[in-house]
Design goal:
5-stranded antiparallel beta sheet, MoCo_biosynth_MoaA/MoaC, alpha+beta, EC 4.6.1.17, cyclic pyranopterin monophosphate synthase activity, Cyclic pyranopterin monophosphate synthase, molybdenum cofactor biosynthesis
Length: 166
């Protein structure tokens, strides 16, 4: 390639230290799954308004679910150097938790040469941000917490699960 050389191995830098997209063309396509989780913590009155349909912008959980699914499909447009992937499934659940939180879980699947961790994390993040956006008029103190990868399956590294004992 004029002006540069490729680095060996899976790295986001070429031989000259410039950022590049990792070449995954030699990796075999395998079934891949990633599960990410997070929560939005809010005042009890905010969650009560969500549950009763009292948010003026509409169905908060339904809109957040759709936003998260759409975001997973657009992850490569949002995250630099992230591979565009054909996702075979995106499942996003938003469940009220106690009186002050909404738990969010994304399950993303594909068959390909690279994983879907970023897509699952993006889905949870955008869903949480959508809840915040739709409810901020009544509760600007909401927080997004614990967004992280819970599980990944497939690829060379196989199964990985977050340590939940801490």
């Amino acid at each position: 390639m004029p002006g540069g050389t490729e680095a060996s191995g899976f790295t986001h830098f070429d031989a000259e230290g410039r950022a590049v997209m990792v070449d995954v063309s030699a990796k075999p396509a395998t079934a891949r799954l990633a599960i990410a989780r997070g929560r939005v913590v809010m005042a009890p009155a905010t969650l009560a308004a969500i549950r009763s349909g009292g948010i003026g912008k509409g169905d908060v959980l339904g809109v957040a679910r759709l936003a998260g699914i759409m975001a997973a499909k657009k992850t490569s447009d949002l995250i630099p150097l992230c591979h565009p992937l054909a996702l075979s499934s995106v499942q996003l659940d938003l469940v009220p938790e106690g009186e002050t939180a909404i738990a969010i879980e994304a399950r993303v699947k594909t068959t390909g040469p690279t994983g879907v961790e970023m897509e699952a994390l993006t889905a949870v993040s955008v869903a949480a941000l959508t809840v915040y956006d739709m409810c901020k008029a009544i509760d600007r103190g909401m927080t997004l917490e614990g967004i992280g990868l819970a599980r990944k399956e497939g690829g060379k590294s196989g199964l990985w699960e977050a340590d939940t004992t801490a």
